[in-house]
Design a protein that fits this description.
Layout: H1 5-19, H2 28-35, H3 39-51, E1 55-58, E2 64-67, H4 76-84, H5 109-125, H6 128-139
Antiparallel strand pairs: 1-2
Helix pairs in contact: 1-3, 1-4, 1-6, 4-5
Length: 148
């Protein structure tokens, strides 16, 4: 499994917007400047996130994006699955039902299923708040609202 730039940039976009929470809507041009990502690419990603209800958008002079929920309410898994699609390591695990003709006798199926479960558990364990706290820690800033 390899996470594309879309998934990585979606996490950076969401973290940046969370970091500027309380300042009103965040303009994508400002995120682009801070993150070194093109505005056009951020527009595509933000559109996907807004359509799914993870971001709220505003138009006009005070336009931009803001989080639809608190950072603690977003898992990294929510964001990655939205931008990357299914994160199954093999095709036979992508759907609700395994339709592979060999699934009953496949000696590797349990291995792949275990890997898939481990990946999902890991990405669902971390929230946007965790990423924000790590970003602030690396900058030497207070990690949360209670620290300010």
């Amino acid at each position: 499994m390899k996470i594309s730039t879309k998934g990585r940039y979606a996490l950076r976009l969401m973290t940046d917007i969370a970091d500027h929470d309380g300042e009103g809507n965040v303009a994508l041009k400002d995120v682009a400047a801070r993150q070194g990502i093109s505005v056009k690419y951020l527009e595509q990603i933000a559109g996907t996130l807004a359509k799914a209800g993870l971001l709220r958008s505003g138009r006009g002079a005070q336009g931009g994006y803001r989080l639809a929920r608190e950072p603690e309410q977003y898992t990294v898994g929510d964001i990655l699955r939205l931008t990357e699609g299914n994160l199954a390591p093999v095709a036979c695990l992508e759907g609700e039902e395994n339709r592979c003709q060999r699934c009953g006798e496949c000696p590797t199926l349990d291995f792949w299923a275990g890997l898939y479960a481990a990946v999902n558990a890991y990405i669902d364990r971390y929230t946007l708040a965790d990423l924000l706290a790590e970003q602030r820690r690396k900058r030497g800033q207070p990690s949360g609202k209670s620290d300010q």
